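Database export, one record per block. Field names are fixed; values are copied verbatim from the stored entry.
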Amino acid sequence: MPDEAALLIADVFEAAGALRRLGEQTAAAEGLTQARWQVLSAASEDPLTVPQAARRLGVSRQNVQRVANDLVSSRHASYEPNPDHRGSPLLTLTPRGRESLARVTARAERLHRTLFATIPDEEIHATRTSLRRLLSELDRHEGEAGKR
């Protein structure tokens, strides 16, 4: 009997890759990259510093810095003074950035409705529950590994 856990991991990686490609196509249709879309989304509710955005997205500060600089250059975002830390400005969306984010988010929502149309809500919920449990176990494992 095959190792079901190994097969699940392979399926998760395959799904992640396919969703990443789909995200890139969705973002490109609105003149963005998926990375720019993610950083816009991270800073959409409240202005963030680059390190805060990196932590929220689970990626390196350097990667977010590069993307944030690109967003500022393209006038999708701007750097504003940070009253709490002069050396770490706040990344803020411009009206152009908010419009682009709204368009790409709406496009993604339409795509998701089509993509998940044949999968019952109960299956989606059960899959999410299982993935959240797996993520919780991974967090626990990483925490224990860090204590050694």
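Remark 1: The CA atoms of residues 109 and 115 lie 10 Å apart.
Remark 2: The chain has six helices and two strands.
End of record.
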